[in-house]
Inverse folding.
């Protein structure tokens, strides 16, 4: 969404003492949801820089299509009025997803973006494959919020029921998956991660796991970062009982850095997953397509236990995010031109060699939209891939890459 700054410059002057803060337009959202994101405060001097940061924080909430600031002069300083345009709370929409094994899946979704005005999002989805139609089916429930009972603990819950033929692993995946993640802020931008999951795969059995880690998130926005860094280190144990189907440990390092200059955004990222232990075929890693290497097609022969993927991408904001309305529903859109280069190791032994390495270049267009964040239309090429490959993906690649198999 575009959060526009709209005020009289002569009234909003750095250094003036803030005497009062008011909100306008919060018909669905409780005021303390906004209070948590404020930097300007009554009794402190007003700062344009703080308001720019506030705009990005409001953007990450995914609750507003537009925010503006109005300043009224006061005999002793200035009064601030934050004016919000809220997104539609209930959003029925098509549900889309793209996975390596199923390709595009489409269906219906119903989302409540702001349950009880507390910035809690709940969404239900039903999806089916389109080629071949109804060959794969999924039902999902998602719930999340950046706060838990007004504590700085972000949480995410997921339930997924799958009934699908897996082309990459060549088996019928009838499974149920439950996942909970809690990210508790320790201090400043550091958070502690606790993430238990449970999966039952028909004909194979139970696959429980428990992950713990630490995260440093200094990005200016979680939805469309322009500057800052994200670092995550996580250790996950798969199989915690004697008779579990799998018994291995995943060591994960997720690294992302963003630099902003004018309309140009440079992103450098890497993802490393090392998995020693006993692992079933349905948890082997595959690469190729919109969520890994865009110069290759997903291929069952390209698989491994461990992986290391890196990416350098340049984005140009052709159309900065801007609000619009359709039949009273407040939405936003934007467009970015992208180009980049990416490479990866995918291997089975203790350490990789150059025969396990692949690389591609790509370019394309990203459309920024609510809920899904972005739709990516890209063309990738690698001499090893044989020809130009067209890739279409949802969400940021760094996000989709983490759960690309489901």
């Amino acid at each position: 969404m575009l959060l526009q700054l709209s005020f009289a410059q002569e009234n909003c002057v750095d250094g003036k003492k803030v005497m009062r803060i008011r909100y306008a337009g919060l018909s669905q959202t409780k005021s303390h949801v906004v209070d948590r994101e404020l930097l300007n405060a009554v009794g402190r001097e007003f700062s344009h820089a703080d308001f720019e940061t506030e705009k990005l924080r409001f953007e990450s909430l995914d609750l507003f299509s537009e925010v503006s600031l109005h300043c009224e002069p006061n005999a002793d300083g200035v009064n601030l009025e934050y004016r919000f345009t809220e997104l539609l709370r209930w959003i029925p929409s098509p549900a889309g997803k793209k996975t390596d094994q199923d390709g595009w899946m489409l269906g219906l979704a119903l989302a409540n973006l702001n349950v009880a005005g507390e910035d809690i999002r709940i969404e239900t989805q039903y999806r089916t494959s389109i080629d071949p139609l109804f060959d794969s089916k999924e039902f999902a429930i998602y719930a999340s919020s950046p706060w838990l009972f007004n504590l700085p603990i972000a949480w995410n819950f997921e339930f997924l029921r799958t009934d699908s033929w897996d082309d990459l692993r060549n088996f019928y995946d009838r499974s149920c998956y439950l996942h909970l993640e809690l990210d508790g802020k320790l201090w400043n931008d550091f958070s502690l991660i606790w993430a238990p999951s449970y999966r039952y795969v028909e004909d194979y059995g139970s696959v429980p796991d428990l992950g713990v880690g630490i995260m440093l998130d200094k990005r200016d926005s979680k939805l469309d970062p322009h500057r800052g860094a994200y670092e995550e280190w996580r250790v996950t144990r798969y199989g915690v009982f004697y008779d579990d189907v799998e018994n291995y440990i995943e060591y994960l390092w997720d690294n992302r850095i963003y630099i902003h200059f004018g309309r140009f955004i440079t992103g450098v990222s890497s993802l490393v997953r090392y998995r020693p232990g006993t692992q079933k075929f349905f948890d082997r890693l595959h690469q190729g397509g919109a969520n890994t290497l865009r110069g290759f097609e997903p291929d069952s022969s390209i698989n491994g236990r461990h992986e290391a993927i890196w990416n350098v991408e340049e984005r140009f904001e052709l159309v900065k995010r801007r609000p619009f309305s359709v039949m009273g529903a407040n939405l936003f859109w934007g467009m970015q031109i992208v180009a980049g280069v990416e490479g990866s190791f995918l291997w089975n032994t203790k350490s990789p060699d150059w025969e396990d390495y692949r690389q591609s270049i790509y370019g394309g267009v990203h459309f920024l939209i609510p809920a899904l964040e972005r739709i990516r239309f890209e063309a990738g090429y690698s001499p090893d891939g044989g020809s130009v490959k067209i890739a279409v993906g949802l969400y940021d690649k760094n996000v989709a890459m983490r759960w690309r198999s489901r």
Remarks:
- Residues 1-9 have pLDDT under 50 and may be disordered.
- The domain at 90-403 is CATH 2.40.160.50 (Porin).
- Helices lie at 31-35, 48-61, 397-400.
